[in-house]
Amino acid sequence: MIKLHARLEQRFDAEPFIARVARGRADCLPDRDREVLFVDPGEALVPGYRACLVAGGPDEHRQPVNPKIWQVPESLHYLADGDIVRISPRSGELWVMYRRESAFNSMLLTEQCNSYCIMCSQPPKAGDDSHLIRAYLDAIPLMSQDTCELGITGGEPTLLGEGLLEVIRSCKEHLPKTSLHMLSNGRMFNYLTLCREIAAIDHPDLMVGIPLYSDLPHRHDFVVQAEGAFDQTIRGIMNLARCGISVEIRMVLHRETVDRLPQFARFIARNLPFVDHVALMGLEMMGFVRMNLGSLWIDPVDYQAPLLHAVVHLEQHGLNVSIYNHPLCVLDRRLWPVAKKSISDWKNEYLEECHGCVVQDRCGGFFASSSLRRSDHIRRLTSEVLSTECQVVPTQSFTL
Ligand code: SF4
What pTM does this model have? Predict the structure, then answer.
């Protein structure tokens, strides 16, 4: 697991600031005041940078070059040129906001939410967290224009109103080639005005990922713990599509959702055939999942038949489907073509059993939090197993 937060020993009386890491180069004069120089032991400091991060100790001879020198703990020695950090000098906190080489950068814009999902991995927090928006508005212009994709997440980002629009506008201006993928519960898109305001920004590549947990309104409302949420979400999805904004439907698979997977697939194929992507996702053992594990956990092997049925049904109706957050060894082999390596690199792990597994390079592996509960069917796959077994479960038909 890659650490994104650390405490620094040295403290200074100064305001928090956002800066880009300069490492292995000292030639970007115009930007030095927006950068922190990262030096390895024995490497010389260069004047003009906002501050300096050193992998070794902050030796006294270096102090005259830059008065603000922080010794960086080993867990952050991976920091690379172009990464972006937020440093709070008074509390000595360092937060890695963006890693240039990662394909999994996302912006958590708020921790507030209007739902209270039983398996929320990032439980909502009340209180003013507007500093997050300001931090990202400072960080976006420093990000690499070669960033392939950037996520927007929360909490519920649509609660930010104008703040969210500002972030999308800034992304369009500074990162015109970067795809933007926003996670939202979709309820605020019930208001057509919000959809129109986002559409008016005319971002070239924006998709909104919206969770839908059942074809039955009361089942969805139970999962998100909000009465009327199903109707708002469905209207929201339709409003977004009406405004020309791409929509992805996300379904988290657990004991409260898997039994109606075939009916869910039929509902989407019939009523929402225009969506751009359907993602069927494994549980992340964080937040409320830890509290509700007993009622949510189901071994993925036990829902392979309805999952296969749902994927086949959606694909037969022309929908683009993916399975996220599942190790390959628990998936029916016929589902492997749609299984994606979806877990963010900083929290993605493999187990002892994975060493020597012939499909590890294409397997999504595990969340670092998955040690809480794992399938009983994790097993190293060998070429021999692959050539002899063609599937994990037999085909099963469902009455809809
Ligand atoms: S053993 Fe590990 S790498 Fe192999 S399929 Fe299972 S989870 Fe993936």
Answer: 0.91
